[in-house]
Amino acid sequence: EAGVAQSPRYKIIEKRQSVAFWCNPISGHATLYWYQQILGQGPKLLIQFQNNGVVDDSQLPKDRFSAERLKGVDSTLKIQPAKLEDSAVYLCASSLPSRSLYEQYFGPGTRLTVT
Amino acid sequence: KNEVEQSPQNLTAQEGEFITINCSYSVGISALHWLQQHPGGGIVSLFMLSSGKKKHGRLIATINIQEKHSSLHITASHPRDSAVYICALSSSGGSNYKLTFGKGTLLTVNP
User: Fold this and answer.
1) Residue A87 and residue B37: Cα distance in Å, rounded?
2) What is the per-residue pLDDT for B88?
3) I need a surface site. Which of A22, A88, B57, B82 has the fewest CB within 10 A?
4) Residues of chain B with pLDDT > 90: what percent?
């Protein structure tokens, strides 16, 4: 079974530029998550999709971050314009909820450096 | 106060030593997860547990729901165990399942 795919793996941009990340979840996984992990901290949920609908985006900085999941499969996360504090690893995860317990499968992440 | 507290933050051990990483939490949960993250790599799920104890190879995870505490043990540690170990909580609100992560414990096992 193929895992969660993400691209690019690394990205370096200057502040005020735009950047987009792509995620392809495990086939059949209805739930998709985007996390931001700043160095030395645990991941922080940015947005959660159930199929192509948004379930939780309460911690997404909507003035500069946007995400979409067309057709309930692939997803893109965009930052426009980027700030220095956006430097982090952006992780995508997917899951297939079963009863009340579930397990999330994580992609390799995209390491973003904003200079 | 964070909902998830891990200790220690950093841990250095010699190969072969028995390792314990602790996780305390303050909220009700559906399950607790132990995750492993290698430098530059993604996150791998090690255990998901809601009660008792689970064992996989040299790894053992325990949880005490009443005390809101979990431990991850590594027996006969090896340099390849060097990674960040993260405790995360599953909580449910209706159909929305969320993970809340600890800051992680950086484990370094020296040969």
Assistant:
1) 18
2) 93
3) B57
4) 73
Q: Per-residue pLDDT tens for B51-101? A: 999 999 999 999 999 999 999 999 999 999 999 999 999 876 555 567 889
Do B4 and A97 make contact, defined as CB atoms within 8 angstroms?
no
What residue has token string 């960040």?
B84
Q: What is the C-alpha to C-alpha distance for residues A55 and B97, in angstroms, rounded to an integer? A: 10
Q: In angstroms, rounded to a whole number, what is the distance separating the alpha carbons of residues A82 and A20?
A: 11
- What would the mean pLDDT of B38-59 be, rounded to a whole number? 90
Q: Which residues of A touch B96 (CB under 8 A)?
A: 48, 55-56
- With an 8 Å Cβ cutoff, are A42 and B103 in contact? yes
Residue A39 DSSP label: T
Q: How far is CA A27 from CA A51, A53, A55, A80, A81, in A?
A: 12, 17, 20, 29, 32
Longest pairwise C-alpha distance within chain A: 44
Mean pLDDT of chain B: 91
Q: What is the pLDDT of residue A85?
A: 96
- Nearest C-alpha neighbor of B30 from the set B45, B48, B46, B50: B50
Give which of B101, B104, B31 is closest to B65, Cα–Cα: B31
Q: Which residue of B has its CA nearest to A54?
A: B96
Cβ within 8 Å, pair B50-A101 = yes
SS3 B8: coil
Whether the CB-CB separation of B75 and B58 falls below 8 Å is answered with: yes
Residue ranges in chain A modelled with pLDDT below 70:
1, 97-102
